What we know:
Elements: H1 6-13, E1 15-18, H2 37-48, E2 52-59, E3 63-71, E4 85-93, H3 102-116, E5 121-127, H4 131-139, E6 143-148, E7 151-155, E8 161-165, E9 168-174
Parallel strand pairs: 4-5
Antiparallel strand pairs: 1-2, 2-3, 3-4, 5-9, 6-9, 7-8
Amino acid sequence: MVVETQTDTYLQQLVIRQVIAEDLPALEWEGEYAHYRNLYLDAFERARQGRSVLWVAELPVVGLIGQVFIQLICDRPELADGHERAYLYGFRVREAYRDRGIGTYMMKIIEDDLRQRGFRMITLNVARENTRARHLYERHAYRIVAPEPGIWSYLDEKNIWHTVEEPAWRMEKRLL
């Protein structure tokens, strides 16, 4: 006898797809991430230029429950060089849907996509205090390769500059 779990149902219904312009407001998750509005707009523009790929996980009726962005090329080639190395960032799953395999499912699709594009390495930064995320990445063969100061700035939705200092670990995975 096979018992279908709620996790199985979620994964069967889940749609992993690239972001479209109409998704941009929903990426803010009812205002929780409104302060990143300009970052989302910039990332979407990079995607239109072919420099990034933005992904969402959508559950019918519920809406967007996950997101992850991939930078294919950036000004730090050790993170993304446009040919062999891509950079994963902004990876999140709504709290109510965590621990159900959604993040793992998204990672598989993204890694497969990068392999098809010819990338051999994926890089990410994870906050040092975010041990839960770090353990997820380690379970999927990412390894710590360097410390990162984690200092970055962004312009919020009210056009105010913020500087974030979030020490991190740089992690990598070879895509075979």
